[in-house]
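Moderator note: this is an archived Q&A kept for reference. The question asked for a predicted structure of one protein chain; the sequence and the answer are reproduced below.
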Amino acid sequence: MWLVFVGLLGGGTIGAACQSNAFACQSDAACTGGRCEPQGWCSFPDSTCDSGHRFADHAVGGLAGSCVEDSVVGTSTATTADETEEVETTGTIPGPDGTTGPSTTAAGSSSDDGSPSGSSGEPPGPAITVTLPILSDTNDGSIYSGLLGGFEWAMSGEEGDGDGFFGEFPAGEHYAAYFRFVLPPQVSGASVVQARLRLEATSTLTYMWDSGSHAVGVWIEASSDAPPVESTSAFPRLFGGTDGSGVSLTGEMVRWPEAGGLTWEPEANTSPDLTPLFQALAEQAGPLVAGSHVQLWISVATPTGVGGEVTYVDFATGPDAQVAELELTLVSP
């Protein structure tokens, strides 16, 4: 099990500090009339809970409206009317096959007995995994070249129905999607030792996609706090954007899959480890800061000259949609 933190959706009625756009609290001062829990979200007094506190009703991921349970060594639980979610406060770093091993530092070092050690010889803090969802329709979408010139912006899916696409279109051109995530308090001072993007395909699945030759690439915007995309002028210069205001990417790309062609699954699709992107971002823009935003861009890895696209569920699909998620495994020094 891993420690999972989720964002907050706008709206709700509990606590003025948590009523508007999603945010991750860092102190009790951010939660008017409540307190900031270790998970990074506000809770408010409720005498019916053993702990005396309940999470705000617009939290997601199983925490919404649940009682805050007293912390215990190893795990704690958040209970709702229809489910109980176990939240682990320590953990190990999962491998590509989902198995776990000893926690490692950003440099990947560990002691002879398998315990992690930092450059100073002191063991780092435990590895935790935070899962960050897309929180609004302004934080995902696609941009692609129009058949008659210029660019098209599909903020809410290509037809405005939440069916998003990315890949190669027209033939030889980048059809790019973007995914913007707000960083939680736990990133402060921590190193990213594993990062994965999860995307759910729509019922359309693919369009002219050749799983034998097509692959996608993932890039990260070279910004300490990536702004939301507001027009086609954001189309990255690296992809052929002609507007001087097109966003800059770090230049580091993670190919998905690592070799061969990509088979796009009808449900969840999980990227390879994106840690190299976050290392490049740290080198160019500085360490991650709680409350700031990172923006991933995804398109065909190398245009093949033959168009093809895969789909993803855009936030505009609706409140119950399985939107994009960024999973970060962090180790504190």
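Archived answer notes: The radius of gyration is 20 Å.
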